[in-house]
């Protein structure tokens, strides 16, 4: 059981929680009369299952391609021998099924058991999310090995997750929101997409040399260490810029908006400084620590939005 918990990589779950929480907060701010707690619960369950599925599939995919073995990763369950291939494949299948069941239950609630075009569209997006979770590192055409991980993470952990969450709360009234409200929701979704890509970038900067040697192509591998850090800074700046647009478009008093913006800039400015102080000799534990702290820091975005 400990090995299965380890493979789930609980330290990555705050990011999924942050993304769904942002969609939840947007609904409460701009369409509170349509908010349903049961929808939020099932959205969160589905999102967490998809994140865990991605983590299991990532462990399996990197092991099969020899990436973890080449890097001597003892924090992965397959490369460390804590689990065998058959057990991890069975776990991937089981979590895929649970994700599908949870997603269908969510859609039945959201659409009041009416099989509309919206239901079918969201079902297709859900199936694509499951597929994307698995094929990040699994298969001959794994997109995580072709420098496409950032793009997929941005899309599915940004606009799809946040706007999807808002839409599922009230499929019929989403398009009737005021223009400023829609723009604010889009800005919030972009901020979470950039935050998610920034988390992935820290992970890939950490593994840049090992990925290069094993043939895994990521954006940091293509850019090199120093330019990869600049890429990370650009993601964080884009995240903060989107979040500021979101805050400005809310109905909060101006002094509150300024306070929230300052807090966000201070928190992520500090996290940027920690990556700035790193170099190519920086140890694996240092980046693991920063990966955890940055992931946890993303929770402050929906918290500040809620405040």
Please outline what is shown here.
The chain has 307 residues and is mostly helical.
What distinguishing features does this structure have?
mainly alpha; 307 residues; 15 helices
Model description:
This protein is mostly helical and 307 residues long. The protein has one domain. It is 75% helix and 0% strand. The protein has 15 helices and no strands. The protein has helices at 2-8, 13-30, 37-64, 67-70, 85-110, 117-135, 149-157, 159-169, 179-206, 208-214, 219-223, 225-248, 254-276, 284-297, 300-306. Helix 3 packs antiparallel against helix 8 (159-169). The protein is globular and about 50 Å long. The two termini are 38 Å apart. The model has no long low-confidence stretch (mean pLDDT 86).
Distance N to C terminus? 38 Å
What is the succession of H and E elements? HHHHHHHHHHHHHHH
Q: Major beta sheet, specifics?
A: none
Estimated helix fraction: over 70%
Radius of gyration over all CA atoms, rounded: 19 Å
- Strands, total number: 0
The dominant shape is: globular
Question: Low-confidence parts lasting 5 or more residues at pLDDT below 50?
Answer: none
Quaternary state reads single chain
How much of the sequence lies in strands comes to under 5%
How would you summarize the topology of this molecule?
Blueprint: H1 2-8, H2 13-30, H3 37-64, H4 67-70, H5 85-110, H6 117-135, H7 149-157, H8 159-169, H9 179-206, H10 208-214, H11 219-223, H12 225-248, H13 254-276, H14 284-297, H15 300-306
Helix pairs in contact: 2-3, 2-8, 2-9, 2-15, 3-5, 3-6, 3-8, 5-6, 7-8, 7-9, 8-9, 9-12, 9-14, 12-13, 13-14
């Amino acid at each position: 059981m400990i090995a299965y918990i380890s493979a789930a990589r609980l330290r990555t779950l705050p990011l999924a929680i942050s993304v769904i929480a942002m969609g939840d907060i947007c609904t409460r701010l701009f369409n509170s009369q349509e908010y349903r707690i049961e929808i939020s619960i099932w959205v969160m369950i589905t999102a967490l299952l998809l994140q865990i599925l991605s983590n299991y599939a990532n462990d399996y995919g990197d092991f099969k391609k020899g990436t973890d073995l080449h890097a001597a990763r003892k924090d992965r369950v397959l490369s460390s021998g804590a689990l065998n291939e058959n057990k991890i494949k069975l776990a991937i299948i089981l979590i895929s099924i649970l994700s599908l069941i949870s997603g269908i239950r969510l859609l039945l609630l959201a659409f009041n058991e009416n099989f509309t075009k919206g239901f079918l569209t969201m079902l297709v997006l859900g199936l694509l999310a499951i597929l994307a979770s698995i094929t990040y590192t699994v298969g001959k055409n794994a997109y995580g090995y072709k420098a496409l991980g950032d793009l997929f993470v941005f899309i599915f952990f940004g606009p799809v997750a946040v706007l999807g969450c808002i839409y599922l709360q009230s499929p019929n009234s989403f398009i009737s929101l005021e223009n400023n409200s829609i723009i604010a929701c889009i800005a919030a979704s972009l901020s979470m997409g950039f935050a998610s890509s920034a988390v992935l970038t820290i992970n890939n900067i950490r593994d840049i040399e090992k990925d290069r040697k094993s043939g895994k192509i990521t954006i940091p591998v293509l850019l090199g260490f120093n330019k990869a850090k600049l890429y990370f800074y650009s993601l964080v700046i884009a995240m903060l810029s989107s979040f500021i647009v979101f805050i400005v478009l809310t109905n909060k008093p101006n002094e509150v908006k300024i306070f929230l913006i300052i807090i966000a800039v201070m928190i992520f400015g500090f996290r940027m400084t920690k990556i700035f102080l790193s170099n190519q000799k920086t140890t694996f534990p240092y980046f693991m620590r920063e990966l955890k702290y940055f992931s946890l820091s993303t929770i402050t975005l929906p918290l500040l939005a809620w405040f």
